Amino acid sequence: MSESQLWHEVDDYFTDRLLPDAPDDALEAALRDSEAAGLPAIAVSPLQGKLLQLLAQLQGARHILEIGTLGGYSTIWLGRALPADGRLISLEYNPEHAEVATRNIARAGLDKQVEVRVGPALDSLPQLADENPPPFDLVFIDADKVNNPHYMEWALRLTSTGSLIVLDNVVRGGRVADPANTDPDVVGTRAALDMIGGHPRLSGTAIQTVGVKEYDGFALARVLA
Predict the structure, then answer these.
(1) In terms of Cα–Cα distance, which of 148, 100, 101, 103 is closest to 121?
(2) Coiled-coil region(s) at which residues (predicted)?
(3) Model confidence, pTM
(4) CA-to-CA distance for 23 and 92, rounded, in angstroms?
């Protein structure tokens, strides 16, 4: 058995035991419709989605910002952690992806709490800031990696003490640690990690993961006073 096969088997083992309510019609439909629409198969795994939900619940999150909607799979996990008067804003560059996500979110019964905004996130974020929203309790960044440092900067502006920032896909199959690798996605990820490690208002860590998403990982950063 290859390492990758073993990772998949362990993920299946955990999923069977820790997500006993599966199958989940809304989540499965979101993945199925995303695939049918030709969206890339890069959504978080069920276990990762549940982790995001738990983090939001631990935060007592009432306001969540997601940068990178794709088909709305992670959005549904996060949206289900909100209280009845909570709100999630998700930013998606691709109008076709946003259309699929909006349908998936509505089918999950979250359309009253979740708003998908279409366009480049670096255009949407200043517009969002101009609205002077309440500080976001949790920010999930899972978009184009080259702009990760910019997304981190905006996340810091739109949060407050105690907020949590989750940065996905930071390992890049191990390429992040290869000094010879100058891929823009890797460079952007390094810059975001450097910001987390060096910013006086952030305390963070990063975790490597293996599983159905192969070899990758995520970073967590808590906003300090």
Answers:
(1) 148
(2) none
(3) 0.97
(4) 27
